[in-house]
Amino acid sequence: MLxxxxxxxxxxxxxxxxxxxTDAKTRLEQRQRREAAARQETNEKWDPHYFSEQGNTYIxxxxxxGRIYQASSSPPNNNNNTTxxxxxxxxxxxxxHPNDESSTPTxx
Length: 108
Fold this sequence. Notes:
With 108 residues, this protein is mostly helical.
């Protein structure tokens, strides 16, 4: 669904039409702002699909390291890099600050 929202922006960037990409992005963001305002009026809580709120921080629900670790079906070999990566996967989450506009989730 997220890719569909940004399809026009992505296409125009790929073909080098920056003005059309900017216009498409502006329309998308305006729509998101209208939907956010409508939710606020009805006191509807926004539940972002990709992030979970933890205090003043948003945590990505499916961090890459966790997915890599789960995808490996064989036990770790003696390679220190693999062992370190697997131990990191079980202990780290990707955190983003809610005031960082580049990483905060936006409503569809």
